[in-house]
Amino acid sequence: MSEREEQFGIGEAAARTGLEPDTLRYFERQGILPAPRRDTAGRRQYVAADVDLIRMLVHLRETGMPLADIAQFTGADTEATDPSRLRLELLAAHRRRVEQRREALDRALDVITRKIADYTGHVSDAPDVLERPDTTIAYSVRGKGPLLFLVGAPAGRVGFAALADELAGQFTVVTHDPRGIGASRMTRGMAEPTPEVLAEDLAALVDTFTGAPAIFVGTSGGAVTLLQLATRYPDLVGSAVLHEPPLITLLDDAALADRAASAFAVATTDPQQAVQEFFDLSGAAHHTDPEQAPPTHFALPELPAEELDKNRYFLGRMAGPSVFYEPDVQTLRRARLTVCAGSLSHHQMARRAADALAALLHRPLVEMPGNHVGASTAPAEFARALMPLLGP
User: Fold this and answer.
1) Contacts of 132 by beta carbon, 8 Å cutoff, 6+ apart
2) CA-to-CA distance for 157 and 134, rounded, in angstroms?
């Protein structure tokens, strides 16, 4: 007798599936599982195919398929004229539900991760301060080893806190709040946070530590800042890893550019609408593999006042100059740059831009864990992937 034909009782079936015998009996009584064959003494006799079906039932139940649908899938509903087609339709519908739930959970996890970083920032030591002609820049230093700057826009010290901790064992990690963000509070008469101005701030910060070339990692708008730094101050950049610079200028997509400009135009008066529009056009909060595209629209909840205020500044003043920045490709080809994108950012604006930039610079596009915000939501995995890119 082959393994597939081997028969065994309810105790062994329970052991093979991780369920209790009473649970198997309950599924039978509820019509969720077809009853197995019985021997001459009336004892249930299971075969390997029964166990495979029960294991599938467990997966379907754990992922929230309605019991009525499970009953149809397992074959307890014997009225179906085409069982294979019915099962295909049930699985396709359930996959859509699971994907929607996963999207919701991913967004919730991103929010939770950011809040953990927020509270970590609140309880950390007071930052050091760099005086600039029109404002002050708050920065933090941790770890030992070669000098490494983590650069974001709008991400700052809080957004990079977990990643900095992961890297501090091998690097002296410097993080800072870009002007107008976090502890680098906006001041009267402060210059606009364009990539050119942000790069000047960063150059001044680097100068406080060393005159030698340093190592940089930039994400999102911070990667754009590094493009300008490498153009204006090439001697400061030993090497730089650029993660998803969201350069609409590289995409030859007038409709997308118009949508972005529209979002930025209303940010001061209606930041909720601006966030919604930019969320939909960027797709950056979603997790998409090569076969997936981000949804064209996903309604966001009303943002709290604190988030609205942040986005008045970020979308109203910082994001536009970054996404419409035009890199000096000829100069940048001489710099030691690595262009990266999230393995779960496929078909999103920033990954498309990163792919275009890598092609213009004649560099390969390196995949990193997570999506556009993988540096903050998956810091341990992101740090491990970074390490080979930061060496000599």
Assistant:
1) 179, 201, 204
2) 20
The two beta strands, 136-142 and 365-368, are unpaired
State the Cα–Cα distance between residues 226 and 199, nearest whole angstrom: 7
**Per the structure block, which two tokens stand in for 307?**
């988030």
pTM: 0.74
Task: Please say whether the beta carbons of 215 and 237 come within 8 A.
Answer: no
Closest alpha carbon to 315 in 241, 247, 261, 367: 261
Which of these ranges, 15-24, 82-91, 135-144, 241-250, has the smallest mean pLDDT?
A: 82-91
Q: Which two tokens stand for residue 116?
A: 């953990």
Strands (E), 94-162: 128-131, 136-142, 147-151
The neighbour count for residue 54, using CB atoms within 10 Å, is 23
Do residues 228 and 196 make contact, with C-beta atoms less than 8 angstroms apart? yes
Pairing of strands 214-219, 44-45: unpaired
* Tens of pLDDT, residues 38-62: 988 889 999 888 888 888 888 888 8
The pair of structure tokens assigned to 309 is: 């205020």
Q: Is the torsion defined by CA of 154, 156, 162, 167 positive or negative?
A: positive
Residue 256, judged by CB atoms within 10 A of its CB (0-12, 13-18, 19+), counts as middle
User: 172-207: b or e for each residue (b if 16 or more CB lie within 10 Å)?
Assistant: bbbbbbbbbbbbbeeeeebbebbbbbbbbbbeebbe
- Residue closest to 378 by CA, chosen among 337, 340, 344, 338: 344
The length of the chain is: 392
Please answer whether residues 284 and 107 qualify as being in contact, where contact means their C-beta atoms are separated by less than 8 angstroms: no
Q: Rg (Cα) of the chain, in Å, rounded?
A: 27
